[in-house]
Amino acid sequence: MDALATPTNSHLRQPDWYRSATRWTQLTLAEDDPVKYDPDQWIDIFKRTQSNATCLSAGGYVAYYPSKVPYHYVSKFIGDSDPFGALVEGARSLNMHVMARVDPHAIHQDAADAHPEWIAVDRDGNKRRHWAFPDVWVTCAYGDYNQKFMPQVIREIVENYDIDAVFANRWQGHGVCYCDSCTTRFKTATGLDLPRTSSLDDPAWMGWTAWRRQVLTQLVVDWDDLVKSIRPNASFIPNMGGVSLIEFDLGLIEKHCPFLVVDDQGRRGTESIWMAGRNGKRMRATFRERPAILITSIGPEEEHRWKDSVTTGPEIQSWITNGATHGMLPWFTKFNGVVPDQRWIQPVADSFGLHARLEPVLANLTPTAQIALLDPATTLRHHGQDTRRAAEADDLGFYQALVEAKLPFELVSDQAMTPAMLDKFKVIILANAVCLSDAQCAMLADYVALGGSLVAANETATRNADNEPRNALGLGDVLGANRLSAMRGPVRNTYVSFAGDHPINAGFDGAERIIGGTHLMAVEPISGATAPVLYVPDFPDLPMEEVYPRQEPQGAAMVVREHDSGGRTVFIPWNIGAIFHDVQALDHSRMMTNAVRWALGDRPEVELSGASVLDVAIRDNADERAVLLFNLTNPMMMKGPIREFYPVGEQTVSIAIPTGRQLASAHLLVRGTTAAATVSQGRVTITVPDIDLLEVVHVVWA
């Protein structure tokens, strides 16, 4: 379909080989695949999907080649064959890049008998049988298994096969391990016993998260050094979840990981499709220039784990394409080489084909926006998997509100922000950045002093980077608010009331008050700040005869301030984002987006209108701008799988023309047509007749 469908030989085995690895097929073999699957079918799938790179099962839990490493279990079905080697040769014959997959999270009985120290131990002192297959054992990720045994496996693979990288799955461990090695090493490093809880108030838990981060980061470094000692242009690439960057030392990851792979294979429970694209923004929030890849499963990603199944084609296409809308390179994974249900092949081929069509234009453009949502890595790194999603509920709520308002935005990680990075944006949103260091607070204060605007909410900056409480708001002077008392809650049946006709209060005609939060902080404006929204003092929710307010509205439920620099600040001292994420009340969405629009001040550079729910992304360079319009309008938007696409009708896109430039051309890239465009008052207005799943408005400036 285009010249980039497969890399030329000149791209292979070079230091920057990964830059032409833009569409990935992952084949994760089952143990009996060597006698059941059809390798030629997979070569055909490589071709149909225009994949230019592949990740293939090599070893770890099961070896798919004749390994000679002691206790490295070899599939009993390979006989005298070499399935991994055959697939590598087939992919290389198509000029594809090749990555070898290893999975070190479990071992068989013979290895467990010979090396019981390789087995993870639970908090009760029991060696951990595998939760899904009790015949085998879960490994300790922090000791000799990963530090001594797996390097032998990696060395054998890299020395004997023509590969570009080694990719590890489930290499990070499964919670706290209480084996003798972890107990001793943790005690030596921290002076503490291993934690028994995941409470942020437990020093042992805080010590564990830091110690684990150090151990795993060093593992990435050691494995990458090993790979490069054999093949200098190759790398070790760790599999990462959407928040994994908060778990590692960023400087070392930047040095050793030339690209990032995010293992967020699909949505589960009640999630929007935009979660796919959020991964792209999150990776870019930390490493703006580094390629990032999103793994997509062809099956549903629910907790019930139907891993050898197929979901609907529109769901597959939506996840892949929304990720690509926000810069994620597509990668699909198939578990089990046998293909009893082929309904996934054409949807993957269509999504990959669309990516190939758009790649020549979009690859030359950089994601941009006027608004950024702060990714609170300093806060989230203290949380375990059981509390992390609740800790980022405010961020998810603001994210949904911005999408509904058709406001393009990026993410910025607080652990990677610099004055230069902040300066790229006019508004920074801190939905609930609880833990911020003094240096981070100072950087944000300087940003406002130079004309930037902040919208902050909930418990932002109430604790320092080590999760220690502050006596006052870390950004109080900037936000114009003085804290009177700590956050209280959960409370029920709370309301906030409008005070005056501030622009943030627009659009609530007929309402004197709206739903409040469940966690509330008492604050007062300081000189130069005002409170356009007030708390309604608590009153009972039962008996029903008692459900009435006893007092007039009082106490600031929002503090706003206009600064001499031209910047504006908004502080909402309650959990508006989390409540919107949970309840989806339109009033909260309107209040948040009104606050962002007021903080922005000027008319947005890109405005959209039309009946639709669109996830909008902007990319540009000095001479071009692309506005990507991903259609979320679907009855299954918040709960999959999507059954079919629901096209939206006419949409209007208004784009500010850069100073000193004029419109040269406008196209709709997915339709493949010239766009209907008019120019007036320094803006170009483009009509998009309809959108199926994605449209890209591409303008070129003269």
TrEMBL record:
InterPro entries: Class_I_gatase-like, Divisome_Glycosyl_Hydrolase, GH, GHL6
CDD domains: A4_beta-galactosidase_middle_domain (cd03143)
Domain of life: Bacteria
Protein name stated in the entry: Family 10 glycosylhydrolase
